């Protein structure tokens, strides 16, 4: 697989496209004024403890209080479980944990890290179990765990873990035979030398020392440590053995990225190139058109079938349809071929749109068990290429596939779009006739409470036109019934569901 990374930089926005074999697979956007918070470390202040939910709300200086669950506290009462690939704590049974009300109290200062950005109406998700990501390693100052990325082959893991343990112990501050915290070896550290690993260990411990020192001097609600920018995370997180080039259209930022690479990731420097072409860099692979398509509900498949993607705050649903595809020998084969193509397209759309959380996929019903198994195997194979952790179940009794994809940042649609001012994000609006009948009921309701000289209806042109034409008889009948004149005023700035009833 050949991978190219294209970076479009401007003072207000950085956009990154990951292109594999000529097709855009991932899009990342970071705006200067709206930079994500994941990885940031704050000195927070406990604003409320909720024993019933075994959680607390923490004020870290954002518009909404952030959320901390008891499982994400640093506690001597349990040993946390870590996911070596996502660098996040795994599930620990709540029954085994010390109750949160015995660990924190309102007004307490607490060192916390953002593990999920604020999404929709939800505040940020926090952890008191800090982890600091470096070039080759992730440092766990509150843990002695030595982990190895799950993408590194199993036969090498024991050897790498022993090497890591020896290096961490040898350089631990204060002696005493301890490791001075835990570490997880990232995938790109598989072939690192002892010297490179030792440098990363020293860098991460210095970063943690700076955070601890600042936490003693700064007031609550202070940002103590910020994760790398998107530009720098390209080198840290996105570059792999398959990456051929990293092209960026800003000479200044190219120089900065190369300098950052020389210091922390020397193997990536030769891949960083300044793009000097006449055409905008994103035009090379029609990436702006891909972004526009990634914001739509419908995704057309080459065979003639299509997907319908609906994203809500709770979950995402993806429906597969045959459309105009009739190319196979019989109907079963048509469905099978469409579902196979959809499996690849869905995995790509999840990455492209950065969809996370619960995802429900409604493949077209298949009668043959071997077809279902083949489609599920292809789907899981495509999901395995995702850098973000995914987990897919089998077909349910209703023929649905339930899966999850780790969500840490806003999806592409949430980042680039906002709810429609007319429909408030519902995707539909009431018909003009439904709004007209709402208005008639509201006039009758107000006529029973007030006795104005006249009722004036201010509404959208379509609703007013309906009152002047098809609904004129009902409007006149209501006027006679309440004994008051009703006048109409068209307002082009109003949406179809908006109206005012003015008492004159």
List the helices and strands and how they pair.
Layout: E1 3-10, E2 13-20, E3 23-31, E4 41-50, E5 55-59, E6 66-69, E7 82-83, E8 88-89, E9 109-116, E10 125-127, E11 132-133, E12 137-140, E13 146-148, H1 154-170, E14 182-185, H2 194-217, E15 222-225, H3 230-238, E16 243-248, H4 251-264, E17 272-274, H5 287-294, E18 298-300, E19 306-311, E20 315-321, H6 331-353, E21 357-362, H7 369-383, E22 390-395, E23 401-405, H8 412-416, H9 432-447, E24 455-459, H10 461-468, H11 472-482, E25 486-490, E26 499-503
Parallel strand pairs: 1-16, 6-10, 13-14, 16-17, 20-21, 24-25
Antiparallel strand pairs: 1-2, 2-3, 4-5, 4-9, 4-15, 5-6, 7-8, 9-10, 11-12, 12-14, 18-19, 19-20, 21-23, 22-23, 24-26
Q: Mind telling me the CATH superfamily name of the largest domain? A: Nucleic acid-binding proteins
How large is the share of residues in beta strands? Answer: 25-35%
Please tell me the total number of domains: 4
Instruction: Give the terminus-to-terminus CA distance.
Output: 72 Å
Subunit arrangement of the protein: single chain
- As a whole number of angstroms, the C-alpha radius of gyration is 28 Å
Backbone shape: globular
Unreliable spans are: 76-89
* Helix percentage: 25-40%
User: CATH top level of the largest domain?
Assistant: Mainly Beta
> What is the CATH architecture term of the largest domain?
Beta Barrel
Please state the average pLDDT score: 87
* CATH topology title of the largest domain: OB fold (Dihydrolipoamide Acetyltransferase, E2P)
- The total of helices stands at 11
Strand order of the largest sheet: 18-19-20-21-23-22
Per DSSP E runs of 2 or more residues, the count of β-strands stands at 26
Main beta-sheet annotation: 6 strands, mixed
Category from helices, strands and their pairing: alpha+beta
């Amino acid at each position: 697989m050949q991978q190219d990374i294209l970076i479009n930089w401007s003072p207000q926005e950085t956009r990154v496209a990951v292109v594999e074999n000529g097709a855009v697979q991932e899009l990342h956007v970071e705006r200067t004024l709206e930079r994500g918070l994941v990885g940031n470390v704050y000195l927070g202040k406990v604003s409320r403890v909720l024993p019933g939910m075994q959680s607390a709300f923490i004020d870290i200086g954002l518009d909404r209080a952030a959320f901390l669950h008891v499982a994400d506290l640093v506690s001597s009462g349990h040993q946390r479980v870590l996911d070596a690939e996502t660098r996040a704590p795994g599930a620990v049974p709540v029954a085994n944990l010390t109750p949160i009300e015995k660990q924190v109290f309102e007004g307490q200062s607490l060192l916390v890290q953002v593990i999920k950005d604020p999404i929709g109406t939800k505040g940020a998700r926090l952890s008191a179990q800090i982890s600091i990501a470096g070039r080759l390693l992730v440092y766990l100052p509150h843990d002695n765990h030595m982990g190895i990325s799950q993408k590194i082959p199993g036969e090498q893991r024991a050897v790498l873990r022993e090497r890591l343990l020896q290096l961490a112990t040898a350089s631990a501050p204060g002696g005493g035979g301890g490791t001075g915290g835990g570490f997880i070896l990232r995938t790109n550290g598989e072939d690192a030398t002892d010297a490179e690993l030792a440098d990363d260990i020293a860098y991460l411990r210095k970063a943690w020392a700076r955070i601890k020192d600042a936490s003693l001097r700064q007031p609550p609600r202070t940002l103590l440590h910020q994760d790398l920018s998107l530009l720098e995370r390209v080198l840290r997180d996105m570059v792999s053995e398959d990456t051929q080039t990293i092209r960026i259209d800003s000479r200044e930022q190219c120089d900065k990225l190369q300098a950052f690479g020389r210091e922390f990731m020397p193997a990536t420097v030769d891949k960083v190139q300044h793009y000097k072409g006449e055409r905008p860099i994103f035009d090379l692979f029609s990436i702006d058109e891909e972004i526009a398509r990634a914001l739509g509900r419908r995704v057309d498949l080459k065979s003639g079938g299509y997907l319908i993607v609906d994203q809500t705050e709770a979950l995402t649903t993806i429906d597969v349809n045959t459309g105009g595809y009739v190319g196979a020998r019989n109907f079963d084969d048509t469905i099978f071929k469409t579902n196979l193509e959809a499996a690849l397209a869905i995995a790509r759309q999840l990455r492209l749109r950065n969809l996370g959380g619960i995802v429900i996929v409604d493949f077209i019903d298949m009668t043959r068990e071997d077809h279902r198994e083949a489609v599920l195997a292809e789907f899981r194979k495509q999901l395995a290429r995702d850098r973000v952790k995914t987990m897919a179940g089998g077909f349910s009794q209703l023929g649905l596939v339930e899966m999850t994809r780790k969500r840490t940042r806003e999806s592409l649609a949430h980042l680039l779009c906002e709810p429609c001012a007319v429909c408030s994000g519902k995707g539909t609006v009431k018909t003009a006739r439904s709004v007209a009948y709402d208005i008639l009921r509201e006039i009758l309701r107000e006529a029973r409470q007030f006795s104005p000289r006249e009722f004036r209806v201010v509404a959208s042109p379509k609703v007013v036109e309906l009152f002047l034409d098809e609904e004129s008889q009902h409007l006149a009948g209501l006027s006679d019934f309440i004994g008051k004149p009703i006048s109409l005023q068209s307002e082009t700035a109003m949406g179809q569901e908006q109206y005012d009833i003015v008492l004159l």
